[in-house]
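input
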Amino acid sequence: MNIYQAVNELVARAVAVQLITREDTVYARNRILHLLKIDDFQETEGTDSEGSIPELLDFLVGYACDHKLIEDVFDQRDILSSQIMDCFITLPSVINERFYAKFSRNPQEATDYFYALSQYSNYIQTRQIARNINYKAATEYGELDITINLSKPEKNPKDIAREKLMKSSNYPRCLLCVENEGYAGRAGHPARANHRLIRLRLGGEPWYFQYSPYVYYNEHCIVLAGEHRDMKIDRQTMERLLLFVDFMPHYFVGSNADLPIVGGSILSHDHYQGGRYEFAMAKAADEYRFMLRDFPLLESAIVKWPMSVIRLRGEHMADIVSAADHILAKWRAYSDEAAHIRAYTQDTPHNTITPIARKRGKMWELDLVLRNNRTTEEHPMGIFHPHEDVQHIKKENIGLIEVMGLAVLPARLEWELKEVEHFLLGREHRVADYHLAWAEELAQRYKGTVTPDNAEAIVRREVAAKFLRVLEDAGVFKRNEAGMAAFKQFIATLGTEGC
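output
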């Protein structure tokens, strides 16, 4: 395949997936030729290639590297790739007009359109995401989702050196700011020329809707504030989450907590995450039902889940918002030294909530996951954080996605777990020091039963068991008799009656 064939094929693919129409082909082709510094064009016969859009992009970017149009480093390749795809994507105003025309007929039709656009435009990195290792694991709490995240590209030393030479910039202020829409990118800041946002209003202010470039589950979306401001969990948060699922009832939406350790990776920009997926936590059963005396129309319960979750259900949004605000205020101030829960250290707050909303028919449902970020000498990374004996599998913050039952595990585990399999099979191995005690424990437990056919399944099951422990470590009230009694003691402070 030559460069002219690759350009023609990419344009043809764009027509096939309805990024452009046939009337747009000459225009789009000429824009790509300009980016590749090609002044002429040769008509070509079709090839037998069945290359996808990402594969054709790679060919064009490779041509640019070979002809010294760009350096062969990640940032420059990423920038050119997004600029090429921007040739096929119309203005944000047009995309929003199309989205809301479809939305007026059916919200699902609108999100189907925008999700497909985000994939075909290569904003969602479909080929990179396909590299992830995904599986499900049965537990007493339902099926947990396990992902070893191989999709995020690794930068080489040349990329890192270029970033150090770049002048610092405050534009866009962060990766979530609306100013990323159409931004070319630079060393250290991803290319966003092919990025588009849907405009919303939540609680009387402008918000924006997009998909994650590296989706972890079906239609993994981000809902972000127009204003660059810190994450904050308050009454308005609860109201916005419920307004969003009223707007898009086929999606759930939730917020990371607003404190370090128990919060997500970006606390500097108020945002939520949602999508069209039902996690194990959403399917979890009520374990202890109670009635909030001030909100008798609501159904309230402790959820059977390794973390500490209160679920509210009702037909009246205002009741759920008020009840959630009441619970949040009580939890912010709550201490129980026997359970290692302390609301404040001097003026530093420790208690907050991870809230998740969904709509079930006429009923709103809001899960409130209780969080605490205290640290001690024994647990310097957090009392309610993965403890040291599970950190060889997961030591990062337990954010919204993990809370709901999806483990996002580091890429290093791809080869590290293979070495554990070799260990169990008695083969030559290079098990990392931090996995060795675990591997020896597994070897004793599965002695004489590990075969080449079941080694991978055994290791995967044991990784899921470690993730379950991660969630139990992050739970503020433990899954034992004393922990449940302590949980019910907090529930009693809300003004309740057991059911």
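quick obs: Residues 455-474 form the longest helix (20 residues).
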